[in-house]
Amino acid sequence: MNGGTEPIAISAQAMEHRLREVLAPTQLQVIDESAAHAGHVGANGTGFGTHFRVRISSPLFTGRSRVARHRLVYDALQEFIDQGAHAIAIEVL
Q1: Rounded to an integer, what distance in angstroms lies between the CA atom of residue 81 and that of residue 51?
Q2: Which residues pair with 28 in a beta bridge?
Q3: Which of 60, 46, 55, 61 is nearest to 89 (CA)?
Q4: Residues contacting residue 73 through CB under 8 Å, at least 6 positions apart
Q5: pLDDT at res. 44
Q6: What is the pLDDT of residues 59-89, one digit of tens each?
Q7: Which alpha helices (H) appear in 1-93, and where do they start and end?
Q8: How high is the pLDDT of residue 21?
Q9: Of 67, 70, 43, whose CA–CA distance to 55 is shortest?
Q10: C-alpha atoms less than 13 angstroms from C-alpha of 85 in its C-beta half-sphere
Q11: Between the CA of residue 11 and those of 31, 50, 59, 65, 68, what are the distances in Å?
Q12: Given 75, 89, 90, 91, which residue has the most CB atoms within 10 angstroms?
């Protein structure tokens, strides 16, 4: 994390990198679905960087509830959320 010193680029690639660093997933797909949400709350007019789908499996999920698994993903992506990622749909595989 950059400690809040400068804005981060919100992209599927940057989110994927962060999730790989923090959760060591065995399966991971991050999809930017922002274009499909044009005109919706949280859309920024560019068609990028606001609405994402994360499909993930991680050994860190073992023995944790669905809510706890989602919390791990949200915690890993908090900096992106703080910078404007509006919606993240999580599919735990």
Answers
A1: 10
A2: 56
A3: 55
A4: 19, 23, 54, 56, 88, 90
A5: 46
A6: 999 999 999 999 999 999 999 999 988 889 9
A7: 12-23, 66-76, 78-82
A8: 98
A9: 70
A10: 27
A11: 9, 9, 24, 28, 24
A12: 90
- CA dist 56 and 49 (Å) reads 19
What's the pLDDT score for residue 2?
Answer: 53
In the block, residue with structure tokens 């735990």: 92
- DSSP, collapsed to helix, strand or coil, labels residue 12 as helix
CA atoms of 37 and 52, how far apart (whole Å):
10
34: which residues sit within 8 A by CB, 6+ positions away?
A: 43, 44, 46, 47, 48, 49, 50, 51, 52
pLDDT digits (tens, 9 = 90+) for 19-66: 999 999 999 999 998 876 455 555 445 555 788 999 999 999 999 999
Identify each DSSP E strand in 20-80 by its residue range: 27-32, 51-57
> What b/e string do you get for 57-93 counting C-beta neighbours within 10 Å, with b at 16 or more?
ebeebeeeeeeebbebbeebbebbeeeebbbbebebe
